[in-house]
């Protein structure tokens, strides 16, 4: 509307009308939530804009299905293993709502002043007419969600009779005796139920009328309440048989079912890490923030993909994106710890920080043949092997064809280089000395020319040493936190 003005935060100020009469005079009309979403989605598509910003790896698969569902006006359910971005996608849908929408001041149901639905709203308008107060609701307040748990009740979702209102003299059949639950309170918005199969079947039944007739039933009383909302649910496909299931009538009432997936391309996996991990830890300019070089981000992305593909990992459980995100943050934390102890100018992660990921992330992986012993070392061995494999793949991808014989010749006379998670960059580089082709190595690892530092050089050299060992051109001895490279 023309009354909006841009503010510093990027959120516009509320429109001007503050009464029902002013709202009518402004030419405002009532539009349902699904029509509103359709209108804004089509506008973004026509303008060539990203419809759901921040969603990575779904451009050609999931997003077209979601867009078609919204255009069709369907409620939808997203199916996928853990950590595939289902909740993130659902929350992003809020961006397709109008930034501001008018509501009756005091309405528990976010009722549009031009389309009241409750007894209370009709009474307000009858009493005050064009002077009925109008407020404005931001789209960020038009989203509700509930994590489904076995103890969730009908009262939580739909509502229940308020005993206080009954004590005040209202009858049980009076709609105003109802204390509304989360779903009606999200009227004219988007409501999400995460892990829907965990909801007891008798509670799922309570949602049938919401999806089909758009009314609610409470304790035997049918409350005519034409709810206006988009209902979105998420579920793990295995939940149909493991922890519970979505009852058939409820599945039938969802207009669209969309299957999600993990990133298909390595580049998308890396983009996701950059987006979701602490951004400043992946290349921030401040000297007091840790830097995780690009080759280590790639190793973590490859490691995650290898774990997902491993025959020894339970594929039904999946390996969440949080596995990679937490691993990357652990690597950065290891670099910060070293900088604090060794007095480095800036924390920069190195290959020596990678082993810390294995024990830290072990709990995020379900193994296919998990032993009864919680201290089973075979699980750690599997993860360590896959991490080495990811490092080798990254070394071949980034350093294939690069002449590293000069670095290899450093060890020809029996010299060794000792590293460790507390060995500083100057200490490591002091052992290596001059490194032939260091500029080319840094370039291969994505370090811009002119921005090299001693810490980045140490990270590059240590990666090269690890790669030479993995390709059997150097020897390596590891004892606890101490690593020694030699001929």
From TrEMBL:
A family per Pfam: Sigma54_activat
Gene Ontology BP term (one): regulation of DNA-templated transcription
Molecular function terms, GO-annotated: ATP binding; protein kinase activity
Gene3D superfamilies given in the database record: P-loop containing nucleotide triphosphate hydrolases
Domain Sigma-54 factor interaction: 178-237
Region (Disordered): 1-24
InterPro entries hit by this protein: P-loop_NTPase (IPR027417), Sigma_54_int (IPR002078)
Name listed for the protein in its UniProt record: Magnesium chelatase subunit I
Gene source species: Klenkia taihuensis
């Amino acid at each position: 509307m023309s009354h909006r003005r841009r503010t510093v935060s990027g959120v516009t100020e509320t429109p001007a009308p503050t009464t029902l009469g002013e709202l009518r005079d402004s030419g405002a009309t009532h539009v349902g939530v699904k029509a509103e979403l359709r209108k804004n989605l089509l506008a973004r598509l026509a303008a060539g804009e990203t419809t759901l910003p921040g969603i990575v790896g779904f451009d050609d698969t999931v997003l077209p299905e979601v867009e078609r569902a919204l255009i069709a006006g369907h409620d939808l359910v997203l199916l996928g293993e853990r950590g595939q971005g289902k909740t993130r996608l659902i929350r992003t849908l809020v961006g397709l709502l109008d930034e501001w929408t008018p509501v009756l001041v005091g309405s528990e149901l976010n009722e549009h002043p031009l389309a009241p639905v409750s007894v209370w709203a009709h009474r307000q308008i009858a009493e005050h007419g064009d002077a009925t107060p109008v407020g404005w609701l931001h789209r960020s307040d038009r989203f509700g969600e509930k994590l489904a748990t076995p103890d969730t009740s009908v009262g939580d979702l739909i509502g229940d009779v308020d005993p206080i209102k009954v004590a005040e003299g209202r009858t049980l059949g009076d709609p105003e005796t109802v204390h509304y639950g989360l779903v009606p309170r999200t009227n004219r918005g988007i409501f999400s139920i995460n892990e829907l199969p965990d909801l007891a079947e008798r509670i799922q039944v309570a949602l049938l009328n919401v999806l089909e007739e758009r009314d609610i039933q409470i304790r035997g009383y049918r409350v005519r309440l034409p709810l206006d909302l988009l209902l979105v649910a998420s579920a793990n496909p295995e939940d149909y048989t493991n922890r519970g299931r979505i009852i058939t009538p409820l599945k039938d009432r969802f207009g669209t079912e969309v299957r999600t997936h993990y990133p298909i391309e390595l580049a998308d996996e890396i983009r996701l890490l950059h987006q979701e991990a602490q951004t400043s830890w992946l290349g921030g300019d401040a000297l007091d923030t840790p830097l995780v070089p690009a080759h280590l981000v790639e190793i973590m992305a490859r490691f995650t993909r290898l774990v997902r593909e491993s025959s020894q990992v339970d594929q039904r459980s999946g390996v969440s994106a949080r596995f990679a995100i937490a691993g990357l943050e652990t690597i950065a934390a290891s670099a910060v710890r070293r900088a604090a102890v060794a007095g480095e100018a800036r924390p920069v992660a190195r290959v020596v920080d990678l082993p810390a990921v294995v024990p830290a992330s072990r709990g995020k992986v379900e193994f296919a043949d998990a032993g009864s012993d919680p201290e089973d070392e075979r699980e750690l061995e599997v993860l360590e092997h896959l991490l080495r494999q990811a490092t080798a793949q990254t070394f071949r991808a980034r350093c294939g064809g690069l002449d590293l014989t000069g670095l290899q010749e450093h060890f020809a006379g029996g010299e060794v280089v000792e590293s460790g998670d507390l060995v500083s960059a100057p200490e490591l580089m002091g052992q290596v000395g001059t490194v032939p082709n260091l500029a080319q190595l840094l370039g291969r690892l994505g370090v811009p020319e002119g921005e090299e530092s001693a810490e980045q050089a140490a990270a590059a050299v240590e990666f090269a040493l690890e790669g030479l060992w993995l390709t059997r051109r150097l020897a390596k001895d590891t004892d606890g936190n101490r690593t020694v490279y030699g001929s």
